[in-house]
Every structure is written in C-alpha cells, then in structure tokens.
Amino acid sequence: MQRSQELDRLFHALADPARRAILERLGRGPAPVSELAKPLPMSLPATMQHLGVLEAAGLIRSQKVGRTRTCAIEPQAMSRAEQWITARRREWEGRLDRLDDYLKNLERGGDRHGSK
Amino acid sequence: MQRSQELDRLFHALADPARRAILERLGRGPAPVSELAKPLPMSLPATMQHLGVLEAAGLIRSQKVGRTRTCAIEPQAMSRAEQWITARRREWEGRLDRLDDYLKNLERGGDRHGSK
DNA sequence: TTAATAGTAAGGTATTTACTTTAGTGTCAG
DNA sequence: CTGACACTAAAGTAAATACCTTACTATTAA
User: Fold this and answer.
1) How far is Cα B76 from Cα B4, in angstroms, rounded to an integer?
2) CB 3.0-4.6 Å disulfide test: which of A12, A35, B24, B87 passes with A31?
C-alpha cells in the first residue's frame, strides 16, 4: 500500500552514483557534510540535495552541532529494500528449482505423475 | 567504474511500483505483455515503456513468437543489486558491532586497552 | 478476406531530477 | 569585532520520466 512509496524512495535514493558513494563513505563512519562533498564532482549545494534525498529515504540521519552537520548511516532502512529483493529471489528460485526438478524427472524417464 | 551505471539502471528500475508489480507477477512465471498490462492503472504503451526499462536493466528478457511477446524474469541481474546492498550492510554492521563491543567493555569497567 | 488481436511507433505534455549560481545565516577563531 | 567557515535558501535551467493519445503493422481466427 504505502509500503510502496517507501520502496520507491529507497530504490530511487540508491539509483545514483553520488548517493551510493556517500553511503559507502558513511559505511566507514559518520562524517560532516563538507567531507562528504569533497570527493564528489559537484557543488556543495548539490551534495546537500543528495543528502536530503538520502535522509528522506531514511537511509541516513544527521544532526547539527555548532555550525557543522554530521551525517551517519541508518542501517534499518536499507534492510527493507533488501527484504523485498530477497523475497523476489526466493520466489523465482523456487520456481526455477521446481522447473529443474521437472526437467531432471523427465530425463530420468519419469513423468508418471500426470501434471493435472 | 561502469559497474556504477549498471547499478543506476538496476535501482532505478526497481524504484517504481508498476515495475515492481511486473516483477512480482513474473516471479510466478512468464507472461505476455497484455497480461502484465491488465492489472496496471495505465495504458498498454505505458506498460511497454516500463518493460523496456526492466529489460534495459537486465531484470527481464522477452521474445516475440507470432504476435505475442512473452516476458520472463532474469534472476542474475537482481543479485547484483543484492550484492551491493549486502556489502554495505556487512560493512556497517561490522562497524556497529565493534562499537557495541566497545560500549559493553566500558560497562564492564574494562578499558584496559588504550584505544590508541 | 475481413476483423479482431497483440504489440509498436510517434509525438506531445506535465512533472521531477540533478544540477547550477548567487546570496544569505549562524558559529567560531583570532 | 571581524573575517573565515560550514552550511542553507532561493531561483533558474536542461534533461529525463512517466504518462497520454493516436496512428500503424503484423498475426491469427472466422
């Protein structure tokens, strides 16, 4: 239902190299905005917008102390995306396994069970 | 490098409810375009565009026989996205675990190892 | 052969992105 | 107090998205 919008925001946030780079950096520990911006090939305000997208998706959190804002990863958010993916994978792996079984059965000259 | 573009396409493809719905449907087996389009709240051509996005991302494959095009899931593509996510998770779970250990150690009145 | 079916091509539009530059606002160091 | 610093706000722009409608092309069925 509206779990869908959550996934929209999540996957959309991950669909950008700058944002993924930020997440990779934050995986090694919290960092202030300017440090996150430094390696990126864009202006500071542009980086800020990316941080906004990441925060709206719940992938990071940030707080300002004095004049510096420190960002950190928010691990739970990502796992929702992961859950959706693994759910899909399980589903079709199951399907492919059944197909595999079926084919192996045929090879063995099986097929004694009418397929309904 | 250009693995990045692959992830861009992948995550972008997943960032849309219609496209995720299509993948969920295809998880239960291959289907022709018109069957995929039926439950979606949009025109057939719009659905076709979504299929194009999914195919460009490598998430599905399709072939036309006669006048009907049959679509099926392409399991490998998704696993690339999955791999990126789990890599991240491992990274920061490791970090959080080390933090956790550190905190537990403090509680126990530890801290006999200079944190250099 | 004709008519319905399944998909495709083309073109148009409103909205959303991903940036930019410029101009601030608060905070801290000297 | 003053200037440098870290960020933020605003406004503008080019390109990409996600749709639409309206043709059109094959294919199959009657």
Assistant:
1) 16
2) A35
Give the global pTM: 0.87
**Which nucleotides on strand C sit less than 7 A from a protein beta carbon?**
5-11, 17-22, 26-28
Locate B106 and state its tokens: 């403090």
Among the listed residues B56, B36, B60, B61, the one whose alpha carbon sits nearest the alpha carbon of residue B46: B36
Is the distance between the Cβ of B18 and the closest atom of strand D smaller than 7 Å?
Answer: yes
CB contacts of A20 in chain B (<8 Å) are 4, 7, 84
Question: What's the pLDDT tens digit per position in B33-59?
Answer: 999 999 999 999 999 999 999 999 999
What integer best gives the mean pLDDT of chain B?
Answer: 87
Beta bridge partners of A68: A65
**Interchain proximity B82–A89, CB inside 8 Å:** yes
Residues near A63 by Cβ (< 8 Å), separated by ≥ 6?
A69, A70
Taken in order B79, B56, B2, A9, is the CA torsion positive or negative?
negative
Chain B residue closest to A22 (CA)? B88
The residue type at B67: R
pLDDT tens track for A82-97: 999 999 988 887 776 6
Q: Which of A10, A82, A84 sits opposite B86 (nearest CB)?
A: A82
